[in-house]
């Protein structure tokens, strides 16, 4: 009976050893291909020559260097410097003016007896900025306020009718208007009431920014020039509000700039820009930071591609560039607050090496639990 029990125990032990050996071999193979959510930073940056990219650590010393490199992806245009014109209306070609000449003298050249007022009717300011007055000819009034234009006409008419007085009323023509093309409650063409009529004035006159727009930006088309600024910046910093010029076109639309987050970040998504300037620190906050269980705060990578003409001695060495940010150091944290994220940048949070080690140990621990269960 005892010999049978001993033989049975030796069989179980032998099977346990074989199971252990097979399990350990299987674990060794499995450890080579453990499923992960992201790559290690060393894996991404290991072979720069083969992948044809340049690697730059983001530090305090590097920030002034990269600040001179061109902005990639879609960008906001340079917004004009602030400036406000006078509150006076200005007559321009295409405007319509109504002129009436008053003369109480008995032998007036213009007025008839018993009717001291001589209405000349409504007339359009010519392309040359002039209006025609009988006996005086063409008189230039464009570029003047209605009050100044009235004085000019009165002085010229006074050369042959000394007692004449001039009354002038003005209606802005199409050339003295600005347009809000889209993105407001009531888009359309609006006359300029004076030279101080600004971008925010136009938006307010058109009923404000449409509530359907997320993160709206304001685009200004002025002749062949283009400018853009986020609406939030314009609201928060009224000094950036500028006076419009006749013919300006304003469009309010959603900011189409974006960046992408992948890897062991808080979330993997496409994110729109929420303001004009987004730093790497801002972007990490937007994506939810580093995944506490997987991410490597010392291995934040920003992947960007520059145009070929940007490669120079003062620019990036290659078109493909990887910026590495270490959020475990004070310099890395401070530098992340000033490092600019461009539209279409890819922010990649690498996986922490300890995560892979922990997974292997977890599998091995589970394996030994199975062995113990078999042995028992």
Give an overview of the whole structure:
The chain has 376 residues and is of the alpha+beta class. The chain folds into three domains: 41-72 and 257-353, Outer membrane lipoprotein wza domain like (Outer membrane lipoprotein wza fold like); 96-171, wza like domain (wza like fold, 2-Layer Sandwich), CATH 3.30.1950.10; 175-254, Outer membrane lipoprotein wza fold like. It contains ten helices and 16 strands. Strands 1-15-14-16-12-13 form a six-stranded mixed beta sheet. It has a five-stranded mixed beta sheet with strand order 8-7-11-9-10. A three-stranded antiparallel beta sheet has the order 3-2-6, covered by helices on one side. Helix 1 packs antiparallel against helix 10 (353-375). The longest helix has 30 residues, at 2-31. It is rod-shaped and about 105 Å long. The two termini are 20 Å apart. Residues 357-361 have low confidence and may be disordered.
What's the short story on this structure?
With 376 residues, this protein is α+β, with helices and mostly antiparallel strands. It has helices at 2-31, 41-45, 48-51, 63-67, 146-157, 199-205, 231-236, 280-286, 330-336, 353-375; strands at 54-57, 96-102, 117-124, 130-133, 137-140, 165-171, 177-182, 188-191, 216-222, 225-230, 249-254, 258-263, 270-272, 295-305, 320-325, 346-351.
